Amino acid sequence: MDLESARRQIQSNLERMRVLYAKPVFDEWVILAMGAKYGGVLAYSGTRPETFRRQLPDDVEPLRALAAGRQFATGDFEFAPDAAGPRYDALMKIGAASYLVCNNTAKTMAEIRADARWLKAQAVFFELGEKFRTDPLAEA
Prior knowledge:
Layout: H1 3-21, E1 28-33, E2 41-45, H2 52-59, H3 61-67, E3 77-79, E4 90-95, E5 98-103, H4 109-113, H5 118-134
Antiparallel strand pairs: 1-2, 1-5, 3-4, 4-5
Helix pairs in contact: 1-5
């Protein structure tokens, strides 16, 4: 999958999740790639385009701690249950060396999961992982 197709797929799935959850599950997302130009950021969508790069190392720390020492296959994902505010809540491997990180800037994953509508929205997130498993993001 090329970057533009990946962006469209992510946006489409997050919109489907919003509809099922009746409010945004994730209001911010970033595609990160190891060794990529642009500081590893391939794409960003969210409410803080001017500041997210500066805060990114701190904001991904909860996910980095959860992922430390683990091997992820393309399509695998992890959630940080207590990552509050600008801290990223979800990580998905979408290519050989690329990751999607998602955030709800108002709620933690624990708060999102407390709503029964999360179960339907989670299925759409899983579907997104399966799409990348079968058609990974091509490394640029």
